[in-house]
Amino acid sequence: MTDSHFSPHESPPDSGPPPLITARPVIIPAAPPPPRFGDAGSPGRAATELLILLGVLLLAQAVSVLLLHTAGVRDVRWVNVLGSVVVGAILLIAVGLILVRAGRPPRTIGFRSDFLLVDAVLGVGLTLLVLCAFTAVAVLLAILAPQLYARLEQTPKAIQAAFPRMRPAWLLLLSAWVAVFEETLFRGFLLTRIHAIVRAWPPSVLLGAAVFALPHFYEGSVAMAMIFLLGTVMGIVFVWRKSLVPVIVLHFVFNSIELMALYISSPAWT
Description:
Blueprint: H1 43-71, H2 76-102, H3 116-144, H4 146-153, H5 155-162, H6 168-198, H7 201-213, H8 221-241, H9 245-265
């Protein structure tokens, strides 16, 4: 009978080299890049968000009419002012919720600026250029197309019929609200979603400017054409600077000058 155990002084037989253990490389998926300016997702998602905002707009209009009717506001001009505040607030909240739901920070719609002071000054300077250009257009219309100029002259009366006369401080507050609300909606949200669908900035800017001009139909066709040009300029600046700052400043200063000039030159505006 043989003993299968080794004595303490004996070494075990050579069983060969130890097995080679190799580690498999662990592949860590790369993190997706953070959302950048203009990132609105796929065309389908962008179209869906536009439809959602359209539904919110219709609902907000109904809510504002109900609230104003309940409050007993009878002057249609104050209905326009208060309705703009109510509808604008609801739409801004809706835009914020859509961005949060999609995981996109505010910078994707232009709430950012690499050089805040430069963008603000740029907005003021562009306002002066736009006012000079509009003045030149009005002079040319008066000389070459008196009929069109006569339509343009109706714009101040249309504004007086749509909005009541207010104190200058209230006019400035209204101008500031409209600038923030409309630029966030039309440039920040609408324009970036149109771009996600058509995949090119030039047609996106033109389509956005056309949509921007539509709510100003009460000012007349010539005024709408000029507002379309203004919307085109603001769209180009928005895409160039990747920021809402210059276009909000431009919009605010432009509206403020227009309303204050109307306030001073129209004492009969009640």
